[in-house]
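Bumping with the actual sequence this time:
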Amino acid sequence: MVQLQVFFFPFMAHGHMIPILDMAKLFASRGVHSTIITTPLNAPAFAKGVQKSNDLGFQMSVKILEFPKLDGLPEDCENVDQITSPAMFPIFFAATRILKDQIEKLLEEYRPNCLVADLFFPWATDSAAKFDIPRLVFHGTSFFASCAGEQVRLHRPFKNLIYEWDEFFVPNLPHKVKLCLSQLPPHVRTEEETEFAKSLTEARESEFRSHGVIVNSFYELESEYADHYRNVLNRRAWHIGPLSLCNRSFEEKAQRGKQAAITEDECLKWLNSKNPNSVLYVCFGSVSKFPNKQLHEIAMGLEASEQQFIWVVRKGTNDKETEDWMPEGFEERMIGKGLIIRGWAPQMLILDHEAIGGFVTHCGWNSTLESIAAGVPMVTWPSFAEQFYNEKLITDVLRIGVSVGAKEWVIGTGGGNIKRDAVETAVRSIIIGEEAEERRNRCKGLKEMAGKAIEKGGSSYSDLNALIQELGSYLSSC
């Protein structure tokens, strides 16, 4: 019997690379030969996961492309994490488009049975079609965000609004969802044809021509929006998540993503000394970087809340390397009560610990789904991309979170206008009180559903099986 071969091509950002690695491992565990396509400086992020799968008797490999060097990008810049200003984003996207010829050479040489390519590679649909290879799109976000974003784009329900804080309802959704004008990306508000807007238009068009979409979610979490996406928006889609749950061992959870800035033993020793549901985890992902004034307000709000916390700090690139954001004597006062991690944190290990009672998050879909899979309620603090949509799913639809009050769509620098009082109020409400307990109970129910979804016979397990069988039927007919 000929083995099914699938190529996986993630966008060069850790928020895209991590779930694609999990996805490739999941396919490999079902007997598929999974190959990840990446660039030299990003390859180490996949090495341990690929080796682990091969050690278990599965088949995974990595193919390397040379990343183009363009004026305006730092030397050896191959990942969004290395971008130091918003002006570099369009240059970085331009560099990824130049990878097209290299991808086509790989497809021609190896002739995989499917190419799973990131949303941000719209040209991949046509490249795969040249060799009669089906292309699947990986969005990296929720059904809810995809549905809400498409309805906003199609109907422009905000077109008569004037002020940044004016509110509107997103039409044609199963739930009432309210946003304000300032929470929309600038190109959506103005219909300005920026390079980024053009790339998203290309992505939508290529998605219609692709074989379908793979979604990192599970049916029970957002069933009405999975149905809406398929039946109202007429998109073919398979839900196969939560992908993070394919990491079952301590080692897999600890090594997920970049090298942590703290040892697992040190982190767990600190958490093991705390009571269940008593610690707040604060982390805003790998892209958002707050200015000093916002870091100062967060510190003051955390201290005023009198709650224990783990805080992952990433600073704005325009601020000095000194830590003059930190209130005088703050770290000394927080000894035993607050743990500050400067750099990457072993997030899955932290969220899975029984001491964690809440998560202050930027509402990136990876972090959101990891929190749900761990049964942890959230304080929502979105900044850009589809994060404001995800916030509404968390707070209004699932009712497992509270908003800190962020209202401004800003890429890279985070929402820098939230005051300490708002931080204190949100933090206390997610940990303390009857409503906090109700949210926690709802989260526990979702955690159980997530676990069942990926087990044999579960919704995600079955959807992945159906997808693999469909791809296999094309192989057998050749």
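The tokens above came from a reply further down the thread. Residues 61 and 195 are 34 Å apart (CA to CA).
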